Amino acid sequence: MTMPINETQSIHRAVAILDCFRDIQPELGVREIARQLELHPSTVGRMLVTLTSLGILTQDKDTHLYRMGSKVLKWGSVYMSSFDLRAEARPYMEELHQKTEETVHLDIPDGMTRICIERIESSHRLRWVARIGERMPYYASASGKVMLSYMPPGQQNEILKNASLEQLTVNTTTDPKILNQELEQIRECGYSISQGERVEGVSCVAAPIFDMTGKIIGSITISGPSTRFSEEKMEEYAELLKQATGKISQAMGFIPKESKLELSRTLQFSNTPD
Prior knowledge:
alpha+beta, Arc Repressor Mutant, subunit A, Beta-Lactamase, 2 domains, 6-stranded antiparallel beta sheet, two-stranded antiparallel sheet, disordered C terminus
């Protein structure tokens, strides 16, 4: 059965209103929401009353500002309980493995080191083998650097301060100033490459995975012998990885900036009351 247009519009507007609330702006008034969505205050007011009556929002009696209600917490708990990064990532890892025929592995940050939690090995005789459970430094790999680059400055500085920055190979970056420049470049392009930085003769390309809050929670890496990783191949792998990790991040609740902008455009409604 097709839903009437006015009911569909109401659902879109309700979602748009809820999307206005942020961690940096947890409480909002009618006029601020109306301004953000370019809706008439009376239209927003009616929607807020309905959302409040359903327990989705609550209103402060003194300030009259609205914030998320207990029902949202309940939904969030259900949503979070269904999360399994390994399970979400596995199908995309298999697809990457089929397209590249190289080793694909999933790493997560764990304190001062990163750890491999899933892998699919290359079928080539000459291949890189990522060991599940292995702890590795952040500073000397594509996977580690891409996670490090998206960490909050405080966490990033703490890790680098405690890292030995040992010269593992001739290609290992040990100068903190140069390393910070590399991290900035990684943030700009959205992926990281490594050519024999931790193990000589092994090249890697990695892209980040984010959770619903925008926090970095892991990375997927394509690894193999440097002889098979030409500049052209690494660029190709980078695009494949960004597509895959983007989808995994969205499955984990992350909303990229471009999607937020598109949602904002979609939800621009008439500025007259209905």
